[in-house]
Structures are given as structure tokens and as C-alpha cells.
Amino acid sequence: MAPRRAAKARSKSAPATARPARLKAPSGKDGNGPAHRLRERLEAVECERDQLKEELERFKARHRRLEEAQAQVRDRIAWALDSLHNILDGKG
């Protein structure tokens, strides 16, 4: 096993600009407390819910339009087949 070396501690402290800023403990009075964060999260979730509801309504409307178009295509194909059967029956 390799011998360990003891690291010498710095004798000088880092300048204030180089040190990370310390955050205050959340107190709720300054608007950064847990209740404030929960309100922000709730607002974000409500906004996302509203956007999803709008998107769902758009998809439902698109689905209805597609079903209507499909029904029209089905009716036209049925009409064309009936016309062809009538033509073939008339010739026979």
C-alpha cells in the first residue's frame, strides 16, 4: 500500500470574490421560503395543465375533422362502387 501524504492546509483564506456566496436559510419572509417555491411550482403545473387542455381540444377537433373526411371518402367510394355495379348490371 502506498504511503499517504498529509496535505498542508492553506494559511491564507481565499478572497471574498473567489468564495462562493452563502445562501441564507429560507425564512418565508423574503419570498424565498418553501411556501413561495411551492406556489411557483403550483403555478407552473397549472400553466402546463392549461396548455395540455388546449392541446387536447385541438387534437379532438382534428380527430373529428379526420373522421368526417374519412366518412366522406367512404361514402364516395361506396357511391362509385354502386355506379360501377349499375353499369355492369345494365350491360348484362
Order of helices and strands: H
Q: Approximately what portion of the residues adopt beta-strand conformation?
A: under 5%
Radius of gyration: 36 Å
**Kindly, what is the distance between the CA atoms of the first and last residues, rounded to a whole number of angstroms?**
103 Å
Low-confidence stretches: none
Secondary structural class? mainly alpha
Number of helices: 1
Mean pLDDT: 83
Which term fits the overall shape?
elongated
User: What profile does the largest beta sheet have?
Assistant: none
Q: Using DSSP, what is the number of strands?
A: 0
Describe the structure.
The chain has a domain at 33-92. Helices cover 63% and strands 0% of the residues. The chain has 1 helix and no strands. It has one helix at residues 34-91. It starts with 33 loop residues before the first helix and ends with a helix.
Which helices and strands, and how do they pair?
Elements: H1 34-91
Question: What's the gist of this structure?
Answer:
The protein is mostly helical and 92 residues long. It has a domain at 33-92.
Descriptive tags:
92 residues, mainly alpha
